[in-house]
Amino acid sequence: MKKVAIYGYGNLGKGVELAVNETPDMEVFGVFSRRAPETVKTYGATVYKVDDILKYKDEIDVVIICGGSAKDLPTMTPQLAQHFNVVDSFDTHKNISEHFEKVEKAAKKSKHTALISAGWDPGMFSLNRVFATAILPDSRDYTFWGKGVSQGHSDAVRKIEGVVDARQYTVPIDEAIKRVRANEMPEFTTREKHKRVCYVVAERGADKQRIKDEIISMPGYFADYDTTVYFISANEMKNKHNKLPHGGFVITTGKTGQNKEHNHIVEYSLKLDSNPEFTASVLVAYARAVIRNAERKNFGCKTVLDIAPGDLSPLSPEELRERYV
Amino acid sequence: MKKVAIYGYGNLGKGVELAVNETPDMEVFGVFSRRAPETVKTYGATVYKVDDILKYKDEIDVVIICGGSAKDLPTMTPQLAQHFNVVDSFDTHKNISEHFEKVEKAAKKSKHTALISAGWDPGMFSLNRVFATAILPDSRDYTFWGKGVSQGHSDAVRKIEGVVDARQYTVPIDEAIKRVRANEMPEFTTREKHKRVCYVVAERGADKQRIKDEIISMPGYFADYDTTVYFISANEMKNKHNKLPHGGFVITTGKTGQNKEHNHIVEYSLKLDSNPEFTASVLVAYARAVIRNAERKNFGCKTVLDIAPGDLSPLSPEELRERYV
Questions:
Q1: Where in chain B is the domain with CATH 3.40.50.720?
Q2: pLDDT under 70: residue ranges of chain A
Q3: Extended beta strands in chain B, E state
Q4: On chain A, which terminus has fewer CB atoms closer than 10 Å, C or N?
């Protein structure tokens, strides 16, 4: 049984604990938390202080780093890669190359294997964009997200004065998806692909019109979208918006034939009741692949594009060929 | 420019020629045919006799073998792997392990890289079955084919006495797909998943009832399905059934959560106007990966499960990370 350390224990870390428990070949070594261990309630895993992790260097096969992309991962992943095989879910697209270089340097030097940006986007969606466009050079790929909860957008709304709680749903626009599936290869504005819907619990006596105006005009988050704001009670928030569903579509349309007369539509879609639990399940499958690559001395930083798909499965190559090819 | 030889020139070989012409990094070395070269009309590629291929051993980077799985590939692929890097689309599921072993032996010995069973099923569908079930251990995967033309089933009908021409469409049953998407994790009989529809041109005066009875009772092909037979004119066959569309769905439904309370649906679908041209496009992307793996001295027999996805693309790892991760 390979031993997995979980570094950080929010929704993603919890999902990783559950996902590792479902595997036949890996077990949780422990959870490493910045909080006092006695205050962290797990599904059964032992809790350690983050500062103690180096003591267990020889007992841990891989560390799954469950921190945030903004503040945690840019330092945590390169640091931990100096001592461990690691997996993260770094998702700040514009900084992926920079993050890759830092992790590559650390992992190559320490002779470990690191995999960054696992999950579903980046992750499974990245894979599908690469597969489809490599197969169909004369193609266009489209990514739609949702319907699902965006935690970043929900947090942005919560910071507005007078907001007690908020939940933001990203919703793909059906008409846009239909046009892509109809092989029109359209150009879209941001507004034409997705809309945003916010559920907000306001403080008693707060100016709802001001809150609404601040939301829909927020640059980078809402200004480029058609956004609807609903004010609801704390009770309704708790009962109707307590889950973290998400999903989306990668649709690639391409043409082949002497006169480009044949259209092809490749579509990958996810419909997830729990975004953190599915993301965690992807991280755990890639943790298995990381351990295997480290055993083959294939060190350094990787993304999902560098990993042979068979390495994700607990089954042997022979079993996989028999059962799935 | 890497040089690709096309071995066999039916619908698949033609698709390979068109697909290689669309790539920025590969070109067609030539077509090798069993027919007299002067009788083979290509889109521009030079035609050679199959028996002459060894003369061009040093000029060819990879051979894409476009033969049939029943009679051609079981001997062609191991033979050619003694001298070349090769790609095939072997699709007789029950013999994949045996085929793999023969090709592995030849390629390892000659220090070449071979990839078998590329295409969309086996191929892209195999990948999606492995990805989804590796991520979601508590899951079930379902494959539906169609609506599309099955060449094997069309050929089987053509062999019946009194049949001039035939085209068979495999059609997935909507109700079954709905039940899978609804997360019921159903068990299906063969009849519940797909139906078959045949268009037949009969000889003048042929006994249509007998032909129909022979079709719908044919073991291994039609007996386990609800099959509909339509008799049409040669003209209608030519005008309405002259294309080779196909496609299908791989749908995996799985559960996560402490009490398995979260459902996830992963769906990959293809809608292809030309089955041979899309299959050919997959073979060409894997030919690129085969060349790269041979350059890294990663010799022997591979399937799509053994190839890092980034190897399929003409873009560099840096470009891929920037553009698609």
A1: 2-119+276-324
A2: none
A3: 2-7, 26-33, 47-49, 62-65, 86-87, 113-115, 139-145, 148-149, 163-172, 194-202, 227-231, 246-256, 262-272, 300-302
A4: N
> Best of A90, A133, A135, A259 to disrupt the B interface by mutation (most B CBs within 10 Å)?
A135
Question: What pLDDT sits at residue A42?
Answer: 98
Token pair of A75, please? 């330092």
Asked if A187 reaches chain B (Cβ–Cβ under 8 Å), the answer is no
Collect all residues with Cβ–Cβ distance below 8 Å to B121 and sequence separation of at least 6.
Answer: B91, B143, B145, B248
Q: Tell whether B262 lies on the interface with A, counting CB pairs under 8 A.
A: yes
Nearest residue in A to B131, CA atom: A309
Residues from chain B contacting residue A113 (CB–CB below 8 Å) = none
Q: Per CATH, is B2-119+276-324 categorized as 3.40.50.11540?
A: no
Report the distance separating Cα B122 and Cα B120, nearest Å. Answer: 5
Question: Edge-to-edge, what's the strand order for the sheet holding B246-256?
Answer: A139-145, A246-256, A262-272, B262-272, B246-256, B139-145
Mean pLDDT of all residues in B167-172:
98
Whole-number pLDDT of residue A251: 98
> Cβ of A258 under 8 Å from any chain B Cβ?
yes
Q: What is the DSSP letter of B137?
A: S
Q: What is the pLDDT of residue B179?
A: 97
CB proximity A282 to B under 8 Å: yes
Residues of A in contact with B95 (CB under 8 A): none
Give CA separation, B57 vs A26, B13, B35, B60, in Å. Answer: 47, 20, 21, 6
A-facing residues of B in 130-159 (CB < 8 A) are 130-131, 133-138
Structure tokens at A66: 């469950």
Contacts of B138 in chain A (CB under 8 A): 22
List, in order, residues 6 or more apart from B267 with CB less than 8 Å away.
Answer: A267, A268, A269, A270, A271, B181, B249, B250, B251, B252
Residue A113: strand pairing partners? A300
Packed helices B317-324 and A124-135: angle between N→C axes, nearest 10 degrees: 120
- Residue B105 near residue B97 (C-beta atoms within 8 A): no
pLDDT at A225: 98
A280 to A17, A76, A132, A268, B238: CA distances (angstroms):
8, 18, 25, 19, 52
Q: Please give the model's pTM, rounded to 2 decimal places.
A: 0.97
B-interface mutation test, from A147, A262, A291, most B Cβ less than 10 A away: A262
Task: Write out the two tokens for B173.
Answer: 């049953």
Query: Does the distance separating the beta carbons of A281 and B256 come in below 8 Å?
Result: yes
pLDDT tens, position by position, B245-301? 999 999 999 999 999 999 999 999 999 999 999 999 999 999 999 999 999 999 999
Predicted pLDDT at B62:
99
Mean pLDDT of chain B: 97
Instruction: For A124-274, give the CATH class.
Output: alpha beta
Report ipTM for this prediction: 0.97
Q: Which of A18, A130, A324 sits opposite B324 (nearest CB)?
A: A130
**Model pLDDT for residues B31-83, shown as the tens digit of each residue:** 999 999 999 999 999 999 999 999 999 999 999 999 999 999 999 999 999 99
> Which among A89, A245, A21, A13 has a CA at the least distance from the CA of B258?
A21
What phi and psi values does residue A128 have, to the nearest 5 degrees? -70, -35
**Phi and psi (nearest 5°) for B194?**
-135, 150
Cis peptide before B122 (omega within 30 of 0): yes
